[in-house]
What does this fold into?
Amino acid sequence: MNREIRVLDVVALTEDISDRGLLRGQVGTVVESLGPGVFEVEFADNDGRTYAMLPLKSSQLLVLHYQPA
It folds into this structure.
């Protein structure tokens, strides 16, 4: 299943973002579409505190699925 990324999708990083201290596999939520293939993604801890929010390209993201397609 290959679909477009949408607002509120849960995503994982496909690469390290070392200047922000983020590692490949960290999970965030898409909070805004900034343009074609660019999304604002929020990363929060288990208590809901945001520790990073940044624009990322769709090529840097993998949409996570919790149900079978």
Notes: Strands lie at 10-13, 27-35, 38-44, 50-57, 61-63. The radius of gyration is 12 Å. The mean pLDDT is 94.
